[in-house]
Amino acid sequence: MTNHYLEILDLGPGADEREIKASFRKLAKAYHPDVNKSPGAKQKFIEIHEAYKFLTAVGPKPNNEPINYDFDPRQKAYDEWRERAKAYARKKAREAEQEQQEMLTKIYAYFDYLAVLTIIFNLLLVMDYYLPGNVQHQQVVTIYRVLETNANGQSTYRYDDIQFDQFRLRIKKEDGLQLQGMESGEIVTTPILQTLKYADFARNNQVIRIFPAYNVYGLVTYLAPLLILLQLGYFWVSKKNQNKLTFLIAIFFASLCEVYLFFRFDAINNLHL
Fold first, then answer.
1. What are the sequence ranges of the domains in the chain?
2. Is the pTM of this model over 0.85?
3. Three-state SS for 183?
4. 3-state DSSP call for residue 181?
5. What pLDDT digit, counting tens, does each position of 122-178 carry?
6. CATH architecture entry for 4-71
7. d(CA 12, CA 20)
8. Helical H runs in 181-222?
9. Host H or E run for residue 45
10. What's the DSSP call for residue 165?
């Protein structure tokens, strides 16, 4: 490794004290500010003195210890700067992590209430579905086709709407074919949310049970249990665990999907006139 101070005095590795002093006297005289009026002479003169002091300090020692010129102040300054930069980066990383944890703690505090409400809502859905339903006898006003138009402007017939006195029920067109000529039926709704579950029609001493094409309680079968499990996982995981945030995001979007589907399906199948 080259030595900065040896370079300043124009010396090579292994220079002894005599060579150091001779080179110092020569260069100090050449760059003395009283003699050399060039712009960099003063700074060069300072560097020459610094080099001389260092090299004479690390020269031969008692017990014939080896001379060590393996030192470069520029490298030392760079290493010190790197250590300060690393310490600063570690400090900033700790501060950022602490700020992130504080922000997540606040988010979790607000989300806890939403998670509890979501659990209650899903338990309510499950309970509402399995409790005995309310039965209402309704007259069939009309049955008409539902045409759905796609992005290309083409119409597709897949569903029928049965219009009762107080309800509208959307069913698959295959089910609609069974109900031709029916004048009345029994509508079964849930006891709490008054959501339509199915309709029974009697023909030739047989009961034809028709379920909505858009069934709100398909949520109970699939989405509600999933959400309850996600919420239990959310409350079980520690706030310092990154998986807690994953549970939060999954619950948030699944809950939005569930609420949208619930009100969307209910609007299609359970229109109170």
1. 4-71, 98-130+214-273, 132-213
2. no
3. coil
4. coil
5. 888 888 888 888 898 888 888 888 888 877 888 888 888 888 887 888 888 888 888
6. Orthogonal Bundle (1.10)
7. 10
8. 218-221
9. helix 41-57
10. S
